[in-house]
Specification:
Layout lengths: L1 H18 L2 H35 L14 H17 L7 H10 L8 H14 L7 H18 L4 H20 L2 H12 L5 H22 L18 H30 L4 H18 L8 H10 L7 H4 L4 H24 L7 H21 L7 H17 L2 H11 L6 H16 L6 H9 L7 H7 L13 E3 L4 H8 L6 E5 L5 E6 H9 L10 H4 L5 E3 L4 H11 L3 E5 L5 E6 H15 L3
Parallel strand pairs: 1-2, 4-5
Antiparallel strand pairs: 2-3, 5-6
Helix pairs in contact: 2-5, 2-6, 2-7, 2-9, 3-5, 3-11, 4-19, 5-6, 6-7, 7-8, 7-9, 8-9, 8-17, 10-14, 10-15, 10-16, 10-18, 11-14, 12-15, 12-16, 14-15, 15-16, 16-17, 16-18, 17-18
Length: 592
């Protein structure tokens, strides 16, 4: 059935493609991808909304009944079961996997990504898992764009644009924030910002935001009502928020990474699920606001300046200081709750947790200033500023943080403090960590280097794709006259010498044997390849291109041999071939 629909969808796309110019078809595709990604995001939002309405509608925000503590255990278990049973290796979590697909897999993502994240993340978060839906939305939108590009037989550049369109539409739909969606796609994917790239992203993001607004309205989308205009007298307060957001973001990334490593060393999925879900249940029992995404808590703090919780930690204390200490505990343990959810087998991301922590942190700082005697502190403004600061620090996406916060507040009256907080937070985290949490994971798990654009472009290249295998090769016992006979018909100036096991024994340079060839070869009948070869510096086929360029500089040669993991000769590689492929790669990703 799926193949049947796939066949006729491809025929329809091919028909439309033949009727339009290349530019017109790309714009048509970005509208379709934007609409599809938006409908996927809306479906995910509605699934979670109705699950929460079914199981938790009678419970006030910040409160949780004893049996509801157990619901996340079931949610994470079901999600882990679906992933393990149906999706397995085709299930990709995290923005780092998307960047890797763009760099190393021709921007191709599995078809199952189109629906797998909707199913698993809705179960995880809808039943109380402490994670966000935005990362699954990003993965779904990216898969929609990638697979539409494959169906349309689009080249790498256009397919990457559609992948970015899906991401932009996903974020835009989640918050009705099209500019933030565009900026998130650009900051995460690191593609060139040109007019040709920008227009499709804007169209997709606008399409996604419009559809989400029509279908969802304001009830499910995040919005704030109790905001105040920016007062420059509060500038110092925003500086404090920026610093604390940066430090908290640094704490979040390091603790999450540490917990990720701890779970990775557990023996199996069952053990990870038991540990993750049970520890999450304990945390939710102690700190009920950790339940679910947490957006309702942020809105409650911003609009009402208060929070009621039935946690036993607050039952015997009724003071402002007790509430602040409780919320500090919520901030510190949210990263544990998110890691337990995701690493325990559930599906979700750190986008919503970062916004949640930032909002609660902004509220805590506002109440601290009030308790210290400062009046007229704009609590809602601090909540929104804290959200921008945490998002900027965790994802290294300051522009996304600024414009997302501006768009969800319904205007740009707070643009100055948002810029200030996001920039300070980003600077604080960047001072300790050169890469964001997900890009650091990408850098460690692959040879990609996202920190430098030139190095990132180089790291996209694979030595295996640049190796020239057309060079002559000789055995150790090949005579000099036979070598001379073969190289007389060859244009190369370097040759491989291999032993009986096909492993590289050495290389022969034409310049080294010219004098012997000019002499009477009859006098060198007993000279063998083993006598004239040299032991060269060689590369492994698994080395990255940056290593290869460094080897060229150190050896002062233009050609290096490449061997396999077993030491067998794989071919030669030249510096000019690397640079030619690099120039071609720049052309491939340039959107003019």
């Amino acid at each position: 059935m799926i193949r049947f629909f796939h066949k006729y969808i491809r025929k329809g796309i091919t028909y439309i493609k033949e009727k339009l110019t290349e530019r017109q078809f790309l714009l048509f595709a970005c509208i379709i991808v934007g609409a599809a990604a938006s409908l996927a995001a809306v479906a995910l939002k509605l699934l979670v909304f109705h699950l929460e309405e079914t199981f938790f509608s009678h419970t006030a925000p910040g409160n949780v009944m004893w049996y509801q503590v157990l619901m996340p255990i079931a949610g994470i278990g079901l999600s882990a079961f679906f992933i393990h049973r149906f999706f397995k290796k085709d299930f990709l979590k995290g923005n780092d996997k998307i960047v890797y697909a763009i760099a190393k897999d021709n921007a191709n993502l599995p078809v199952s990504q189109v629906y797998s994240h909707i199913v698993t993340s809705s179960i995880t978060v809808g039943l109380g898992g402490s994670a966000g839906l935005e990362s699954p939305m990003v993965a779904t939108g990216a898969a929609i764009g990638s697979n539409f590009g494959k169906l349309s037989y689009l080249p790498y550049r256009e397919k990457t644009v559609l992948l970015a369109c899906g991401i932009a539409a996903g974020i835009a739909s989640a918050f009705s924030a099209p500019i933030a969606g565009v900026l998130f796609a650009l900051e995460v994917l690191m593609i060139d910002i040109t007019i040709t790239t920008f227009i499709p992203l804007i169209i997709s993001a606008a399409t996604g935001a419009l559809l989400a607004r029509i279908i969802l309205g304001d009830n499910i989308l995040l919005s704030f009502n109790n905001l105040h205009a920016f007062n420059y007298n509060n500038t110092l307060f925003y500086v404090v928020i920026g610093v604390f957001c940066g430090l908290t973001a640094l704490y979040y990334t390091r603790v999450y990474t540490w917990l990720e490593h701890r779970f990775a060393h557990m023996r199996g999925a069952m053990q990870r699920w038991l540990w993750g879900s049970l520890l999450l249940a304990v945390l939710i029992f102690c700190f009920p606001p950790l339940f679910g995404e947490g957006y309702h808590i942020i809105k409650l703090l911003a609009d009402n300046n208060r929070l009621h919780s039935n946690s036993f930690l607050l039952n015997h204390f009724n003071s402002n200081w007790a509430l602040l200490l409780f919320l500090v505990g919520v901030i510190l343990f949210k990263v544990f709750a998110t890691a337990f959810t995701v690493q325990g087998g559930g599906n979700g991301g750190s986008f919503a947790p970062a916004l949640f922590i930032g909002g609660v942190l902004g509220f805590v700082i506002a109440r601290l200033f009030v308790l210290m005697g400062y009046e007229d502190v704009p609590t809602a403004n601090f909540v929104v500023a804290g959200m921008a600061g945490m998002l900027s620090g965790v994802f290294f996406a300051p522009l996304t943080a600024i414009f997302l916060s501006a768009e969800i507040t319904g205007g740009y009256s707070l643009i100055i403090p948002l810029m200030l907080v996001a920039a300070i937070s980003f600077f604080v985290v960047k001072s300790f960590e050169p890469l964001s949490m997900e890009m650091k994971k990408l850098s460690l798990s692959s040879r990609l280097n996202p920190s430098d654009r030139d190095k990132f472009m180089l790291s996209r290249l694979e030595l295996a794709h640049i190796i020239d295998r057309s060079y002559l090769q000789f055995n150790l016992n090949t005579s000099l006259p036979e070598i001379a006979k073969q190289i007389s018909r060859d244009q190369k100036d370097v040759y491989a010498v291999i032993n009986e096991n096909k492993k590289l024994a050495g290389v022969i340079y034409l310049n080294d044997i010219k004098s012997l060839m000019i002499d009477d070869l009859n006098r060198n009948l007993h000279t063998r390849a083993a006598d004239v070869m040299i032991k060269p510096r060689f590369l492994s086929i698994n080395d990255d291109v940056e290593t290869a360029l460094y080897a060229f500089e150190q050896s002062n040669t233009h050609t290096l041999a490449v061997v396999t993991e077993e030491g067998e000769w794989a071919g030669f590689i030249t510096k000019s071939a690397i640079l030619d492929r690099y120039r071609q790669e720049i052309l491939n990703v340039s959107y003019n």
